């Protein structure tokens, strides 16, 4: 009976931890620099897709940006940034 209670407590702790909001400093996204016009951003998105990247178009602070990845760790963001830059594209970690 003791083992069953310990498993239930462990499961409850795991579920609670999963439901807590992540630390803002540990969650990042990788975006392109901002574009003033949607047309420019769409052309850049097409170029990124031709180079094998799946991107989304977002609007942030009044600028159009390409979203390469979101809700990732800083380490993962740095790895993705290296591959994006190696393909000749500009991006930044937010």
> How would you spell out the order of helices and strands?
HEHEEHE
The N- to C-terminal Cα distance equals 48 Å
Largest sheet: 4 strands, antiparallel
In total, the number of domains comes to 1
Low-pLDDT ranges: none
The first-level CATH class is given as Alpha Beta
Kindly report the CATH topology: Alpha-Beta Plaits
Describe what you observe in this structure.
The protein starts with a helix and ends with a strand. It has a single domain (22-93), classed as 2-Layer Sandwich (Alpha-Beta Plaits). The chain has a four-stranded antiparallel sheet, covered by helices on one side. The protein contains three helices and four strands, in the order αβαββαβ. The protein has helices spanning 2-19, 38-50, 74-86, and strands spanning 28-31, 56-60, 63-72, 92-93. It is globular. By secondary structure, it is an alpha+beta fold. It is 47% helix and 22% strand.
Secondary-structure map:
Elements (H helix, E strand, L loop, with lengths): L1 H18 L8 E4 L6 H13 L5 E5 L2 E10 L1 H13 L5 E2 L1
Antiparallel strand pairs: 1-3, 1-4, 2-3
Give structural attributes.
94 residues; 22% strand; Alpha-Beta Plaits; 4-stranded antiparallel sheet; alpha+beta
Short synopsis of the structure:
By secondary structure, this protein is of the alpha+beta class. 47% of the residues lie in helices and 22% in strands.
């Amino acid at each position: 009976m003791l083992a069953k209670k310990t498993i239930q407590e462990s499961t409850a702790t795991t579920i609670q931890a999963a439901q807590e909001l992540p630390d803002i400093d540990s969650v990042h996204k990788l975006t392109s620099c901002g574009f003033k016009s949607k047309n420019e951003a769409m052309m850049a998105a097409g170029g990124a897709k031709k180079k094998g990247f799946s991107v989304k178009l977002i609007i942030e602070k009044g600028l159009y940006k390409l979203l390469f990845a979101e809700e990732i760790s800083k380490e993962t963001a740095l790895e993705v940034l290296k591959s994006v830059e190696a393909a000749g594209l500009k991006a930044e970690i937010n």
